[in-house]
């Protein structure tokens, strides 16, 4: 699997010959201004919830590609009502096997409304598994005991979690979450985009090392082969 970071909580995972784009928020992100968003042509757009900092570029990238939107019932239907009708609705607890592998939506503790203020359903995390590996993307979430269920069910190769604090877990809770889900390989997202979520990279890495976690705080456009 190959991870490419597009800033904030936006990233691509390439696996089983497919491109999976998560939570695209690129054109509004000053830190990501060098990314050519028109060159991003995923097969799937996976959305953890409806907040603008996770869906801002869905429409543009959808129109530029043949991508199918995978998210909760409410988020997929909201895009469907705007004419973006290649969608696959799911909800927490549900799994579906796609041509790149299986997705299970899991609980996240956060909020979810669409950019126009309409109801966005519940926020979710996702576990994706296929012959190349298994990973957990937490989405925007607090630490929650539900994460122990992920550790019980899956043998994760890595996890992608928010570490920016204020709106989501900070690094301390993300490191606790690693224990709960059973991974020592963490890619941090949802940091530094705004003042509220600016983090100290050095102290975050020191804390991770002390917790026995290999934490990557990616640079924009950094690629990581996992
Ligand atoms: Ni959010
Ligand atoms: Mn967010």
Could you explain the architecture of this structure?
The protein has 226 residues and is α/β, with parallel strands linked by helices. It has a single domain (2-225), classed as Ribonuclease Z/Hydroxyacylglutathione hydrolase-like (Metallo-beta-lactamase, Chain A, 4-Layer Sandwich). Helices cover 21% and strands 29% of the residues. It has 6 helices and 14 strands. The strands form 2 sheets. A 7-stranded mixed sheet has the order 6-5-4-3-2-1-14, covered by helices on one side. A 7-stranded mixed sheet has the order 7-8-9-10-11-12-13, covered by helices on one side. α4 (147-153) packs parallel to α5 (171-181). The termini are close together. 47% of the residues are buried. The model has no long low-confidence stretch (mean pLDDT 98).
Assign the structural class, choosing from mainly alpha, mainly beta, alpha/beta, alpha+beta, or little secondary structure: alpha/beta
Mean pLDDT: 98
Strand numbers in spatial order across the main sheet: 6-5-4-3-2-1-14
Shape: globular
The CATH class designation is: Alpha Beta
* Number of helices in the DSSP assignment: 6
**Would you identify the regions where 5 or more consecutive residues have pLDDT less than 50?**
none
CATH 4th-level superfamily: Ribonuclease Z/Hydroxyacylglutathione hydrolase-like
- The radius of gyration over CA amounts to 16 Å
Strand count, sense and barrel status of the largest sheet are:
7 strands, mixed
Order of helices and strands: EEEEHHEHEEEEEHEHEHEE
Instruction: Give the amount of beta strand, in percent.
Output: 25-35%
At the fold tier of CATH, the topology name is Metallo-beta-lactamase, Chain A
Q: What is the terminal separation in angstroms?
A: 5 Å
Cofactors, ions, other ligands: nickel (II) ion, manganese (II) ion
Whole-number tally of structural domains: 1
Q: What fraction, in percent, of the residue positions are helical?
A: 10-25%
Total number of strands:
14
């Amino acid at each position: 699997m190959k991870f490419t970071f597009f800033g904030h909580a936006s990233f691509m995972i390439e696996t089983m010959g497919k491109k999976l784009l998560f939570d695209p928020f690129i054109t509004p992100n000053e830190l990501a201004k060098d990314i050519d968003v028109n060159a991003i042509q995923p097969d799937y757009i996976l959305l953890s919830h409806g907040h603008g900092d996770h869906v801002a570029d869905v429409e543009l990238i959808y129109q530029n590609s043949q991508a199918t939107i995978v998210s909760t019932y409410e988020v997929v239907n909201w895009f469907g009502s705007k004419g973006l009708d290649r969608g696959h609705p799911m909800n927490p607890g549900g799994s579906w096997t796609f041509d790149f592998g299986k997705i299970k939506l899991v609980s996240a503790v956060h909020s979810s409304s669409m950019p126009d203020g309409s109801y966005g359903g519940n926020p979710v995390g996702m576990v994706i598994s296929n012959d190349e590996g298994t990973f957990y993307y937490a989405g925007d979430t607090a630490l929650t005991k539900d994460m122990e269920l992920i550790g019980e069910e899956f043998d994760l190769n890595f996890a992608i979690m928010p570490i920016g604090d204020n709106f989501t877990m900070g690094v301390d809770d993300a490191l606790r979450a690693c224990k709960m889900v059973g991974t020592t390989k963490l890619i941090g997202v949802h940091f530094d985009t705004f003042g509220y979520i600016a983090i100290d990279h050095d102290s975050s890495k020191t804390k991770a090392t002390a917790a026995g976690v290999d934490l990557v705080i990616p640079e924009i456009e950094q690629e990581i082969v996992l």
